[in-house]
């Protein structure tokens, strides 16, 4: 009953042909209220951020949330703790504007679509260190350990004028914990469905001029059979992962500071290959390894002028056995960022160099990009203006210029209107250019984005609507009719065109002791060449949820809903829509001990994120954490 009511309610704004009006936002809030009245608590497990909170991702500089024109979400430590036994992409899927796909369970190939854009169009950073694969394009999401992440900032919309290549659909910054105050150790254990076992430990704090944060975790699961196609290997496809991080800081004096970060993860998981026969069974295994490292010197030369110099390094390695395959991407970055504040004005200038290397036999190639980025920000009298321009010079294809302009106006102290426009690009991966299916003459993918927003915030209540249109040209596709690489199956070609158009509605309100939150995305991710809906993306998806305090317990519920999607480009293979209900509860069971219980997919819904790949079904997780207060 609840699923049918939600579909009918959410479809109403869509039938209005995505008209970006206050009526649509009211309809979204009404949907949440109707679902609540039907006996199910709804909304996403994401708190409303404080307007005093500082974010970095929007402009690569620290800014109060009130100064940001961009569309940003924040995921804090509390939300991550209540995520239970999920992967990073599962948590991101509870945010506005985000969809995911995955070939089975945790540990298998995953992807993230931001506002319907290709997965490779999201730039990903861990503590300021860029992570990417020059084989597949985009971050290898299954390699990033959620257990080591303390905070997530998600920027929806292109930001190439700030970050350069890759940021055509958005930016996701992941931060590990920073030490402060007295030493604070923690130890956590957890058990869950599919014989999941999880343990973690760490300590953080500060002593004099030093601060530190160390963490380590290990988890393993027997898994389940992730395929349902005929002739596949019927074994269980489990995983095991070990991750650790270290973050050290030294305040040299009041004006100078050094920071060093290190994160590493090794994950092995099972998958079902295509060569299985009962007479010759194979236990196919993924071996994912990654590390990131960064060193940063921050200097405050005067009250107005500051600078930051950083050197970063990351490696993404993926291997399969016994069907052998190995690919390794090594990225190195150098950044010199400068900021000058003059009253309500902020001027920024940055020099950046990026070096990419790919070893994927027979490919052994590298390239570099050198960039100059300039920015200007103004915030006074209810007006907020942000201007950015960037020039990138690539060692392979030459130069590319990008720019963006964003403006916000406070109509009242609680109501703000925003508008922005910008250009973006992504350089072809080394695999797309130099593999046996590659074409060295591929052009960069380019995009043009415009968006409008209206946001309301007062006390514990907030509401917002953002409408956007992002058009991409020279989209790199695998073209079966293109033979420049002399392969019968086809080659990569820069001939595609796509449009990502839609509206995101979000709202939150506190009723008595219950906090409600939610969002609805109405979008049309479309291949402009064929007019077809882009693969594995829905025209409607939503997240809702609520939490409350009762008798010493924190009780929460979430609903995630998605419309119909298609597995193939011709839109003939349907992936059905679905609605999931998740429940969680936590309480302090003794001094310094916190108990978490969580049920995902309460109704045991049978659905697919990728054709022939099975999702976990109903999953239960119970965790206990010791953290002295």
Give keywords.
5-stranded mixed beta sheet, 629 residues, mainly beta
How would the blueprint of this fold be written?
Blueprint: H1 2-15, H2 22-37, E1 54-55, E2 63-64, E3 71-75, H3 77-81, H4 88-92, E4 98-102, E5 110-114, E6 122-126, E7 129-131, E8 151-156, H5 160-163, E9 170-175, E10 184-192, E11 196-207, E12 210-224, E13 237-251, E14 256-270, E15 285-300, E16 305-321, E17 325-342, E18 345-360, E19 363-380, E20 383-394, E21 398-412, E22 415-426, H6 430-434, E23 445-458, E24 461-479, E25 491-511, E26 514-527, E27 540-550, E28 553-562, E29 565-566, E30 574-575, E31 578-590, E32 593-600, E33 619-626
Helix pairs in contact: 1-2
What can you see in these coordinates?
With 629 residues, the chain is mainly beta. Helices cover 8% and strands 56% of the residues. Strand 31 (578-590) and strand 32 form a beta hairpin. Helix 1 (2-15) packs antiparallel against helix 2 (22-37). The longest helix is centred in the N-terminal third of the chain and has 16 residues, at 22-37. 47% of the residues are buried.
- In DSSP terms (H or I, runs of 4 or more residues), the helix count works out at 6
Unreliable parts: 1-45
Overall mean pLDDT stands at 90
- What coarse outline follows from CA principal-axis ratios? globular
What structural class is derived from the secondary structure elements?
A: mainly beta
- Computed Rg: 24 Å
Percent of sequence in beta strands: over 45%
Tell me how many strands there are: 33
Most strands sheet:
22 strands, antiparallel, barrel
């Amino acid at each position: 009953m609840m699923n049918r009511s939600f579909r009918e309610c959410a479809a109403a704004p869509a039938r209005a042909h995505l008209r970006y009006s206050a009526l649509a936002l009211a309809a979204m809030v009404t949907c949440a209220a109707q679902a609540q009245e039907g006996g199910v608590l709804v909304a996403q497990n994401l708190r409303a951020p404080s307007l005093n909170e500082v974010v970095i991702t929007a402009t690569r500089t620290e800014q109060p949330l009130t100064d940001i024109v961009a569309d940003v979400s924040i995921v804090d430590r509390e939300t991550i703790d209540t995520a239970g036994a999920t992967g990073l992409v599962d948590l991101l899927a509870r945010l506005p504007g985000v969809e995911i796909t995955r070939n089975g369970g945790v540990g298998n190939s995953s992807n993230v679509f931001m506002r319907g854009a290709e997965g490779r169009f999201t730039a990903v950073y861990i503590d300021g260190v860029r992570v990417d694969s020059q084989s597949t394009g985009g971050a290898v999401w299954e390699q990033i350990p959620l257990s080591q992440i303390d905070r997530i900032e998600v920027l929806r919309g292109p930001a190439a004028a700030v970050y350069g290549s890759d940021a055509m659909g958005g930016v996701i910054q992941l931060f590990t914990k920073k030490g402060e105050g007295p030493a604070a150790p923690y130890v956590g254990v957890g058990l869950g469905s599919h014989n999941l076992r999880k343990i973690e430990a760490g300590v953080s704090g500060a002593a004099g001029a030093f601060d530190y944060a160390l963490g380590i975790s290990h988890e393993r699961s027997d898994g389940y059979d992730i395929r349902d196609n005929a002739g596949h290997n019927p074994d269980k496809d489990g995983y095991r992962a070990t991750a650790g991080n270290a973050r050290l800081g030294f305040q040299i004096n009041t004006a100078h500071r050094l920071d060093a970060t290190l994160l590493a993860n090794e994950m092995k998981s099972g998958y079902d290959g295509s060569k299985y026969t009962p007479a010759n069974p194979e236990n196919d295994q993924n071996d994912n390894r990654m590390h990131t490292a960064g060193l940063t010197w921050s200097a405050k030369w005067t009250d107005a002028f500051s600078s930051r110099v950083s050197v970063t390094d990351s490696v993404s390695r993926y291997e399969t056995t016994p069907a052998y395959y190995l690919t390794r991407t090594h990225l190195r970055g150098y950044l010199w960022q400068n900021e000058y504040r003059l009253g309500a004005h902020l001027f920024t200038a940055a020099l950046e160099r990026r070096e990419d290397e790919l070893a994927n036999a027979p490919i052994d190639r590298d390239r570099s990009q050198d960039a100059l980025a300039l920015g200007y920000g103004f915030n006074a009298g209810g007006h907020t203006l942000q201007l950015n321009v960037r020039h990138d010079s690539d060692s392979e294809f030459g130069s590319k210029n990008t720019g963006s302009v964003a403006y916000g106006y406070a109509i009242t102290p609680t109501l703000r209107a925003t508008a922005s426009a910008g250009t973006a690009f992504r350089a072809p991966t080394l695999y797309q250019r130099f593999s046996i299916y590659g074409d060295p003459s591929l052009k960069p993918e380019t995009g043009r984005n415009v968006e409008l927003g209206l946001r309301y915030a007062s006390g514990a209540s907030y509401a917002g609507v953002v409408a956007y249109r992002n058009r991409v040209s020279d989209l790199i596709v695998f073209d079966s009719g293109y033979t420049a690489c002399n392969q019968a199956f086809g080659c990569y070609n820069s001939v595609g065109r796509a449009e990502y158009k839609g509206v995101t509605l979000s709202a939150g309100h506190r009723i008595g002791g219950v906090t409600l939150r939610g969002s609805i995305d109405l979008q049309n991710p479309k291949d402009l060449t064929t007019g077809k809906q882009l693969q594995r993306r829905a025209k409607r998806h939503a997240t809702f949820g609520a939490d409350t305090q009762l008798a010493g317990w924190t009780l929460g519920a979430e609903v995630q809903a998605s419309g119909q999607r298609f597995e193939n480009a011709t839109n003939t293979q349907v992936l059905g829509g679905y609605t999931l209900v998740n429940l969680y509860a936590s309480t302090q069971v003794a001094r310094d001990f916190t108990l978490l219980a969580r049920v995902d997919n309460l109704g045991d819904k049978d659905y697919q994120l990728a054709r022939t790949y099975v999702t976990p079904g109903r999953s239960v997780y119970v965790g206990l954490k010791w953290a002295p207060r």
